[in-house]
Amino acid sequence: MIKVGIVGGTGYTGVELLRLLAMHSEVRVQMVTSRGEAGIKVADMFPNLRGFIDLPFTEPEPEQLAKCDVVFFATPNGTAMQSVPDLLKMGVRVIDLAADFRLKETATWEEWYKVKHACPDLLTDAVYGLPEVNRTAIATARLVANPGCYATAVQLGFIPLLEAGVVDPKSLIADVKSGVSGAGRKAEVGTLMGETGESFKAYNVAGHRHLPEIIQGLNPLSPVPVQLTFVPHLLPMIRGIHATLYATLYEDSALHLQNIFEQRYKDEPFVDVLPAGSHPETRSVRGANVCRIAVHRPQGGNVVVVLAVIDNLVKGAAGQAVQNMNIMCGLAESTGLKIVGLLP
Ligand SMILES: NC(=O)C1=CN([C@@H]2O[C@H](COP(=O)(O)OP(=O)(O)OC[C@H]3O[C@@H](n4cnc5c(N)ncnc54)[C@H](OP(=O)(O)O)[C@@H]3O)[C@@H](O)[C@H]2O)C=CC1
Ligand SMILES: CC(=O)N[C@@H](CCC(=O)OP(=O)(O)O)C(=O)O
């Protein structure tokens, strides 16, 4: 059994990790931390875990974490980087659900995250945990940077088009909507029901921190640096991300876009290319570790429209983290992740 620790067990991604790992046949969760709730039983705070997780929250003590094989950080940005170097030295493998190790260049990371990086040397060592691109490197990684939720949906949608070289890499537009659980569990006026219910708005149009992450992921697939306009929106729902992606096609009316997507993802257990003409719904992936994708070419014109949906807490966070753990530990990639979405 793989001994697992979770730092930050009271946030939405932490409790989602617990939900998934409680049903994982090869894992024993041996430690769940919360400084604020230390001593309280996990299942007293999250009754959905009654009968599955019989542990109290504890303080994130390094000596205890060092007894785990794998430690997940489900903590705010800037937290994991304080203790990851020591954990790695003690032989623990780490999966960070936050952004501390997602960017390769220290200056870019510090520009977007507004603090000095505590261990910039590890940025090059860390493997970006998008299995559909980096599966081989993830298998031997000591430190995996789990992708951001928007970044997952946008990259999975654009990858087949850029790899096939059928779109102008300077024409990319990502119009993406997220449910409010993407903002985490902390109390904030902006995510109150009274602020988000029956309303809809864009935010961070001038620049969102997932922009450099997406560009870093897509650039290697393009002969020239990609140009991407990324506009996130907040939807009055709890879970789910819907990405509507646009790109300009190079002239070629004989392109088989559907075929390009089906071929690219034919062996991927967690990317589902829908039949031509489909409109994926966020509710079809609620609770499931899957990205559902459809590709369209409206009126046979020169613009391709890709629709990609994920559950921000599953394929966009905890599910992808478990997928990465499975790969790192040599398990079948879908162990514990064969979950049907909750519909309705
Ligand atoms: N919500 C989402 O859809 C997604 C979130 N993410 C990322 O995952 C991470 C966690 O998100 P979310 O679950 O929403 O987070 P929350 O902010 O809701 O939860 C944070 C957790 O971290 C703990 N924590 C906070 N500060 C520290 C610290 N200094 N040391 C140890 N533990 C700490 C908290 O417990 P306590 O303070 O009691 O110790 C709490 O359990 C974030 O970086 C987020 O950006 C990634 C993808 C999607
Ligand atoms: C709706 C909402 O607020 N979403 C979050 C993104 C959540 C996420 O995945 O971001 P990180 O892991 O990079 O923090 C935001 O825009 O900040």
TrEMBL record:
Ranges in a coiled coil: none
Broad EC category: oxidoreductase
Catalyzed chemical reaction(s): N-acetyl-L-glutamate 5-semialdehyde + phosphate + NADP(+) = N-acetyl-L-glutamyl 5-phosphate + NADPH + H(+)
UniProt domain Semialdehyde dehydrogenase NAD-binding: residue ranges: 3-141
Highest taxon of the lineage: Bacteria
CDD domains per the UniProt record, alphabetical: AGPR_1_C, AGPR_1_N
UniProt cross-references to Pfam families, sorted A to Z: Semialdhyde_dh (PF01118), Semialdhyde_dhC_1 (PF22698)
Subcellular location: Cytoplasm
Keywords: Amino-acid biosynthesis, Arginine biosynthesis, Cytoplasm, NADP, Oxidoreductase
EC number(s) recorded for this UniProt protein: 1.2.1.38
GO CC terms, sorted: cytoplasm
Pathway: Amino-acid biosynthesis; L-arginine biosynthesis; N(2)-acetyl-L-ornithine from L-glutamate: step 3/4
UniProt record, GO biological process: L-arginine biosynthetic process
GO MF terms, alphabetically ordered: N-acetyl-gamma-glutamyl-phosphate reductase activity; NAD binding; NADP+ binding
Function of the molecule: Catalyzes the NADPH-dependent reduction of N-acetyl-5-glutamyl phosphate to yield N-acetyl-L-glutamate 5-semialdehyde.
Family according to the record: Belongs to the NAGSA dehydrogenase family. Type 1 subfamily.
Name of the protein in its database record: N-acetyl-gamma-glutamyl-phosphate reductase
